[in-house]
Protein backbone atom coordinates (compact mmCIF):
# COMPACT_ATOMS: atom_id res chain seq x y z
CA UNK A 1 0.00 0.00 0.00
CA UNK A 2 1.24 3.49 -0.84
CA UNK A 3 1.21 6.05 1.96
CA UNK A 4 2.56 9.58 1.62
CA UNK A 5 1.72 10.90 5.03
CA UNK A 6 3.17 9.43 8.18
CA UNK A 7 1.26 11.52 10.67
CA UNK A 8 -0.56 9.42 13.29
CA UNK A 9 -3.90 11.06 12.44
CA UNK A 10 -3.80 10.10 8.76
CA UNK A 11 -2.54 6.59 9.53
CA UNK A 12 -5.37 5.94 11.97
CA UNK A 13 -8.02 6.95 9.41
CA UNK A 14 -6.56 5.46 6.24
CA UNK A 15 -6.99 1.72 6.90
CA UNK A 16 -10.77 2.06 7.41
CA UNK A 17 -11.35 4.43 4.53
CA UNK A 18 -8.89 3.41 1.80
CA UNK A 19 -10.55 0.20 0.56
CA UNK A 20 -14.03 1.69 0.41
CA UNK A 21 -12.99 5.07 -1.00
CA UNK A 22 -11.50 3.94 -4.34
CA UNK A 23 -11.64 0.17 -4.76
CA UNK A 24 -11.67 0.37 -8.59
CA UNK A 25 -8.59 2.57 -8.80
CA UNK A 26 -6.43 0.84 -6.23
CA UNK A 27 -5.22 -2.19 -8.27
CA UNK A 28 -4.27 -0.02 -11.25
CA UNK A 29 -2.52 2.43 -8.98
CA UNK A 30 -0.61 -0.40 -7.34
CA UNK A 31 0.42 -1.64 -10.79
CA UNK A 32 1.67 1.84 -11.76
CA UNK A 33 3.59 2.13 -8.52
CA UNK A 34 5.11 -1.32 -9.04
CA UNK A 35 6.26 -0.27 -12.52
CA UNK A 36 7.75 2.91 -11.07
CA UNK A 37 9.48 0.92 -8.36
CA UNK A 38 10.94 -1.44 -10.97
CA UNK A 39 12.29 1.52 -12.93
CA UNK A 40 13.62 3.19 -9.81
CA UNK A 41 15.71 0.15 -8.99
CA UNK A 42 18.17 0.94 -11.78
CA UNK A 43 20.35 4.05 -11.54
CA UNK A 44 22.99 5.08 -14.02
CA UNK A 45 26.44 5.45 -12.45
CA UNK A 46 27.20 8.85 -10.95
CA UNK A 47 30.61 9.96 -9.68
CA UNK A 48 30.04 11.49 -6.25
CA UNK A 49 33.79 11.95 -5.75
CA UNK A 50 35.74 12.56 -8.93
CA UNK A 51 39.41 11.74 -9.48
CA UNK A 52 41.64 14.77 -9.97
CA UNK A 53 44.70 15.43 -12.13
CA UNK A 54 47.97 14.28 -10.59
CA UNK A 55 51.57 15.42 -11.00
CA UNK A 56 54.52 13.61 -9.48
CA UNK A 57 58.17 12.76 -10.08
CA UNK A 58 59.45 9.51 -11.53
CA UNK A 59 59.53 6.78 -8.88
CA UNK A 60 56.89 8.42 -6.70
CA UNK A 61 53.35 7.21 -6.17
CA UNK A 62 50.45 8.46 -8.31
CA UNK A 63 46.97 7.94 -6.93
CA UNK A 64 43.49 8.53 -8.31
CA UNK A 65 40.57 8.31 -5.86
CA UNK A 66 36.90 8.19 -6.78
CA UNK A 67 33.53 7.28 -5.41
CA UNK A 68 30.77 6.13 -7.73
CA UNK A 69 27.20 5.13 -6.98
CA UNK A 70 24.51 3.44 -9.04
CA UNK A 71 22.09 0.57 -8.92
CA UNK A 72 23.24 -2.06 -9.38
CA UNK A 73 26.65 -0.99 -8.12
CA UNK A 74 28.71 -0.19 -11.22
CA UNK A 75 31.91 -1.89 -12.29
CA UNK A 76 34.83 0.43 -13.01
CA UNK A 77 37.40 0.14 -15.78
CA UNK A 78 40.55 2.22 -16.25
CA UNK A 79 42.08 3.27 -19.56
CA UNK A 80 45.43 4.95 -20.20
CA UNK A 81 45.51 6.98 -23.43
CA UNK A 82 42.58 4.92 -24.69
CA UNK A 83 44.12 1.52 -23.92
CA UNK A 84 42.81 -0.85 -21.23
CA UNK A 85 44.98 -0.49 -18.16
CA UNK A 86 46.12 -3.34 -15.96
CA UNK A 87 49.20 -1.85 -14.26
CA UNK A 88 48.70 -0.54 -10.75
CA UNK A 89 47.03 -1.43 -7.52
CA UNK A 90 43.26 -1.25 -7.30
CA UNK A 91 41.80 -0.87 -3.83
CA UNK A 92 38.40 -0.09 -2.34
CA UNK A 93 37.92 1.24 1.17
CA UNK A 94 34.66 2.57 2.61
CA UNK A 95 33.17 3.01 -0.86
CA UNK A 96 36.19 4.93 -2.20
CA UNK A 97 37.98 3.24 -5.07
CA UNK A 98 41.61 4.03 -5.82
CA UNK A 99 44.04 3.34 -8.61
CA UNK A 100 47.60 3.52 -7.28
CA UNK A 101 50.52 3.56 -9.69
CA UNK A 102 53.80 2.84 -7.95
CA UNK A 103 56.41 3.56 -9.06
CA UNK A 104 55.07 6.15 -11.50
CA UNK A 105 57.18 6.42 -14.62
CA UNK A 106 57.21 9.03 -17.41
CA UNK A 107 55.47 6.59 -19.77
CA UNK A 108 52.52 6.58 -17.30
CA UNK A 109 51.91 10.25 -18.16
CA UNK A 110 48.86 11.06 -20.24
CA UNK A 111 45.12 10.85 -20.11
CA UNK A 112 43.56 8.43 -17.64
CA UNK A 113 39.88 7.60 -18.07
CA UNK A 114 37.72 5.71 -15.62
CA UNK A 115 34.47 4.22 -16.91
CA UNK A 116 31.72 3.19 -14.51
CA UNK A 117 29.11 0.90 -16.02
CA UNK A 118 26.04 -1.01 -14.93
CA UNK A 119 22.80 -2.21 -16.56
CA UNK A 120 21.31 1.29 -16.31
CA UNK A 121 24.10 3.05 -18.19
CA UNK A 122 27.65 4.26 -18.34
CA UNK A 123 29.57 7.32 -17.12
CA UNK A 124 33.20 8.29 -17.53
CA UNK A 125 35.70 10.87 -16.36
CA UNK A 126 39.15 11.65 -17.75
CA UNK A 127 42.06 13.15 -15.80
CA UNK A 128 45.70 13.85 -16.58
CA UNK A 129 48.76 12.30 -14.98
CA UNK A 130 52.09 14.07 -15.42
CA UNK A 131 55.20 12.20 -14.32
CA UNK A 132 58.41 14.24 -14.45
CA UNK A 133 61.50 12.23 -15.35
CA UNK A 134 64.39 11.84 -12.92
CA UNK A 135 66.77 13.69 -15.24
CA UNK A 136 65.38 16.97 -13.90
CA UNK A 137 66.01 15.80 -10.32
CA UNK A 138 69.51 14.37 -10.73
CA UNK A 139 70.90 17.31 -12.66
CA UNK A 140 72.27 20.31 -10.78
CA UNK A 141 70.36 22.65 -13.11
CA UNK A 142 66.83 21.21 -13.06
CA UNK A 143 65.29 23.77 -15.42
CA UNK A 144 67.88 23.29 -18.13
CA UNK A 145 67.58 19.50 -17.84
CA UNK A 146 63.78 19.79 -18.06
CA UNK A 147 64.05 21.91 -21.21
CA UNK A 148 66.59 19.52 -22.71
CA UNK A 149 64.34 16.54 -22.00
CA UNK A 150 61.62 18.02 -24.19
CA UNK A 151 64.00 18.81 -27.06
TrEMBL record:
Residues 1-26 have a biased composition (Low complexity). Residues 1-35 are annotated as: Disordered. The keyword Lyase does not apply. Keywords: Disulfide bond, Immunoglobulin domain. Residues 45-130 form the Ig-like domain. Pfam families: I-set. It comes from the Eukaryota. The keyword Disulfide bond applies. This is Ig-like domain-containing protein. It comes from Xiphophorus couchianus (Monterrey platyfish). The lineage of its organism: Eukaryota, Metazoa, Chordata, Craniata, Vertebrata.
